[in-house]
Recover the amino acids of this structure.
């Protein structure tokens, strides 16, 4: 009985790295929006965004396109996606992605 609970706990702990990797990008998008940078310009590789982190055991990719942050976990951490879409000024975020279905992230 305890084994499924432990497996779920382990996946949530691994996926936490994916969620945490988005934090500096959320801040950068919010600051850029408040400085008047157009949402269309908030894309991976632009100077006002941090460099993309290298892949890890749990984080496969992290990209930004028009202010929308998409982080993908490796199969080791479920393979789910975590997608954050900002409001107009970057102060509120809508969560989507397959992590919601698997209950690895909260909306």
């Amino acid at each position: 009985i305890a084994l499924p609970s432990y497996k779920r706990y382990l996946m949530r702990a691994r996926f936490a790295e994916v969620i945490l990797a988005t934090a500096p990008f959320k801040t950068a998008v919010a600051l850029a929006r408040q400085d008047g940078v157009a949402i269309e310009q908030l894309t991976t590789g632009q100077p006002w965004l941090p460099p993309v982190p290298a892949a890890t055991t749990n984080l496969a990719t992290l990209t930004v396109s028009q202010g929308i942050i998409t982080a993908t976990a490796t199969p080791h951490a479920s393979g789910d996606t975590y997608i954050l879409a900002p409001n107009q000024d970057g102060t509120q975020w809508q969560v989507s992605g397959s992590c919601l279905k698997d209950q690895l992230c909260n909306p």
In short: The mean pLDDT is 94. The beta strands are 59-65, 68-73, 81-86, 93-96.
